[in-house]
């Protein structure tokens, strides 16, 4: 019986092959293992605190123009502070007024012991003027709704010309050397002998006499305007 010896070179190749095979099997075994679960990283979901509803800043309102009447209008012949929205003076004659969407309220005051008057819408001097004249008779106010037919009159009452008396309320008083007449009428009466009073500037004429005779001529007169 005989044996064939394996040379050293063949032995080394065999060993190297075996080692390579073992390493390959170990690698495959490691790779096939199930991966270990990784604990999730918890992130904070807390949101910043939302502040309570902020208060709404006040809205500035535009200032209203003009002066508002703070006292109820009363035709008692006494012009009370706050009773009228506006006032103008022309020497010894003073006119106070207020208006709303329907009515006009007038307070005339003059340094006289006689009658006082105001006219609206005069075209030339007194022509076609809508005139309201007031005086005192035995201490009681008398107020007439009139219309001037000429530049210097005459100015008979509207009712004598086919119109109507559109003075709705009135009163008067004489005190401390002055006569006060107050009256109320519609801004637009619908009477052709009355001039409609409009928003904005309205031209006026004014006058007063020395006594309570309304047919006697004025001692002072003038012109001006009121704005509604």
Output the keywords:
228 residues; mainly beta; Immunoglobulin-like; five-stranded antiparallel β-sheet; 10 strands
Outline the structure in words.
The chain has a domain at 86-215: Sandwich (Immunoglobulin-like), CATH 2.60.40.1210. The strands form two sheets. The protein has a five-stranded antiparallel sheet with strand order 1-2-3-8-7, with no helix packed on it. Strands 6-5-4-9-10 form a five-stranded antiparallel sheet, with no helix packed on it. With 228 residues, the protein is mostly beta strands. The termini are far apart. Helix content is 11%, strand content 32%. The chain has one helix at 8-31, and strands at 86-90, 93-99, 103-110, 116-120, 130-137, 140-147, 169-175, 178-186, 201-208, 220-227.
What's the CATH architecture of the domain at 86-215? Sandwich
What name does CATH use for the topology of the domain at 86-215?
Answer: Immunoglobulin-like
The total count of strands amounts to 10
Percent strand = 25-35%
List the secondary-structure elements in sequence, H or E: HEEEEEEEEEE
Main CATH class of the domain at 86-215: Mainly Beta
Widest sheet: strand order? 1-2-3-8-7
Unreliable residue runs = 1-6, 30-66
Distance, first to last CA: 148 Å
Helix content: 10-25%
Can you summarize the main beta sheet? 5 strands, antiparallel
Q: In one word, what is the shape? A: elongated
Rg result: 52 Å
Q: Treating each run of at least 4 consecutive H or I residues as one helix, how many helices?
A: 1
Secondary structure category? mainly beta
Give the CATH H-level superfamily of the domain at 86-215.
Cellobiose dehydrogenase, cytochrome domain
Average pLDDT number: 82
């Amino acid at each position: 019986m005989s044996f064939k010896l394996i040379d050293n070179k063949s032995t080394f190749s065999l060993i190297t092959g075996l080692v390579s095979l073992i390493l390959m099997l170990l690698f495959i075994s490691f790779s096939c293992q199930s991966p270990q679960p990784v604990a999730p990283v918890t992130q904070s979901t807390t949101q910043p605190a939302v502040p309570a509803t902020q208060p709404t800043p006040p809205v500035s309102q535009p200032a209203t123009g003009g002066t508002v009447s703070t006292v109820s209008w009363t035709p008692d012949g006494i012009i009370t502070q706050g009773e009228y929205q506006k006032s103008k003076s022309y020497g010894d004659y003073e006119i106070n007024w207020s208006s709303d969407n329907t009515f006009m309220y007038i307070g005339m005051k003059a340094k006289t012991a006689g009658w006082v008057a105001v006219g609206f819408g005069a075209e030339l001097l007194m022509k076609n003027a809508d005139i309201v004249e007031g005086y005192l008779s035995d201490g009681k106010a008398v107020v007439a709704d009139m219309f001037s037919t000429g530049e210097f009159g005459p100015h008979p009452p509207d009712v004598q010309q086919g119109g109507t008396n559109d003075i709705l309320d009135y009163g008067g008083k004489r005190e401390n050397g002055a006569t006060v007449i107050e009256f109320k009428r519609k801004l637009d009466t619908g009477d052709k002998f009355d001039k409609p009073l409009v928003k904005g500037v309205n031209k006026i004429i004014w006058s007063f006499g020395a006594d309570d005779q309304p047919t006697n001529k004025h001692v002072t007169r003038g012109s001006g305007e009121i704005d509604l």
